[in-house]
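Table S2 (text version). Query chain:
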Amino acid sequence: MAHRIKVLAKRLTNFVIGLVMFVTSLFLIINVHVGLFDAIYTLNPYPFYFLGVIVGVERIFYSITGSTKIFSLIVGEGEGFFSIALMGIFLVFITFGIYIAVYTIFYSNAITMLVNGLDGASFLLFSLIIFESWYK
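Corresponding structure-token output:
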């Protein structure tokens, strides 16, 4: 029974993080208008929002079905490089999360600042989930 509660808590946590990441990233994609030049040649985190939508959908899918097929598609399969890929994803997402959270100060709209901070926090929480599964 305790194992079942732990699994449900893990899925609920993943669902909440995935939902927050998906909704905030989608909101920021729609409301933050960035030109192609700014997205490519400046330090704007706009391209990371698209990654947040993809990973948010993956976390929601995992929490509903319990299947890791989409995550395996993103990371790749195989015993040799799986832990290295998890470590890489952890480092990338913790970096993106810190960067998005710090970039919040450059927005002038309070709602956009709040949503951007939540998006950065969801990236950080996702990286902690990856670290927890990698460190086991």
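Notes on Table S2: Residues 109 and 115 are 10 Å apart (CA to CA). The helical segments are 2-31, 36-41, 46-65, 69-75, 79-102, 110-135.
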